[in-house]
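User: Could you walk me through two proteins back to back? I'd like the raw sequence and the structure tokens for each, with a short line separating them so I can tell where one ends and the next begins.

Assistant: Of course. Protein one, sequence then structure:
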Amino acid sequence: MKLYHSLADLRREKTPIRLAAGFFDGVHRGHLAVIRRVIARARSRGDAAWIMTFDMHPLKLLSPLAAPPLLTSTPHKIRLMASDGIQGCVVLRFTRATAEMSPENFIVKLTRSVRNLRGLVVGSNWTFGKNGAGTPELLKKLGAYHGFEVSVVRPLIWQREPISSTRIRRAVAGGRLEDAAAMLGRKFSVAGTVVAGRGIGGRRLGIPTANVNLHNEVVPANGVYAIRAIVDRRSFDGVANIGIRPTFSRLRGRQQGKGLKRHKVLEVHLFDTRAGIRGREIEVFFIKKIRNETRFPCVAALKRRIIKDIARARQILGK
């Protein structure tokens, strides 16, 4: 899948283009319906199907305190959107100038940049232009004027309400991973980079773990989970802990005689592999929660519990 960062880059493309437009945070089932619609329209008319999105949520710029935490970083989102039938993705910078542009001027810029634009596919709640004044109804009128087709996809309903990124964020934060998976159409996952930790798992417990520097902002509730991970296109089963590592925080606090600032950390232990993965990109899928994070009286008690967690995770993943 090609990746561009400017609408003008699409001038290189000779085949007529149809765009699926949206922010697509989480790439849930409703977003996939928009993407599948643009693929179907493009194939039926011999056009190329592309995706147009932005590099940040508009509220990150306009009202940072009101901006929602993101389910997916931009690279993670792009990977999830890639599919057969999509020729490429245009990730536009969202700037003050973008925010101040009227809906009409935004479409003028779009049609001048993408001279072979044949169609636009959007969700029914998609807005564009200053203050979100551009609605799907206005888009249809502008499309008719500028000579491109507009297709509006209705929201998918799950448990009597539209599927949305907001509902998924709440489900993940509340530990309702099954609900999140039902709306996403896949198990909830986070992406990140494996970084060096303090070596506690391998040195003191004999159970090597990898710390993950997370790229996205929404993570499950603290606890221990059965997971599957993708590293270099290879799949691994494993177990993960997300939280503040209370046992070691307590022990370190005793040694240092003062309180410690506790940071939320994701640690993963991958089964049946000795491959070094430090510095690699990883995607971690949360399959099932095993237990809440717990503070143990000593390292030995923690190790005994982790061994049980590993056995339980293998049982869950074996099914």
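----
Protein two, same layout:
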Amino acid sequence: MIQNNRASSRQHPKKGKVILLVAPSGAGKTTLARRLLNDFPNLKFSVSATTRTPRSHETDGRDYYFLSSKQFDEAVANNEFLEWEEFYGGKRYGTLYSEVENELKKGYFVLFDIEVKGALNVKARYGDDALSVFIKPPSDKALVERLRNRGTETDESLQLRLDRARMELSFADRFDSVIINDDLEHCYRELQRLVASFMN
């Protein structure tokens, strides 16, 4: 694990760092991210911006920053995104650099639940001040079962997600650590240990 041993200032909070939780859909990263946020009070979730329509239970600024396509285009043109990507159906998602920096300056660690491409961009920007952990499903079969059990996928969308997942799995060795999620409790304990070590 990479640690930053520079002395902290007594007058100002020590600048925080970035933790990247990376995995294909269905590997369990969102569940793991929620548990980390519950267990580490100095961890803040990175709220993404998106062009998709809010769902009934979602709140702007808490779940996502909901932007129009025009607003998103303007943010891209002004280099306001740390990373952004286009997904299924033309919907775009991205991380606003200013939002991350605001939390880091307050001394918080910022947790990303993020896709491979975005994670590599963030890691390149923050270097040793970013811990990247790839969560891997135990097998292709297990991944298919998890996605099917969600009950939210059509045959077509399931195939799209599987194709993308297989592509993402090929990048696993580009990250600091890889944890196989064959047992959620064991996986979480290992992740918790890595995060605690990085924070200290």
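The chain has a mean pLDDT of 88.

Let me know if you want the two compared in more detail.
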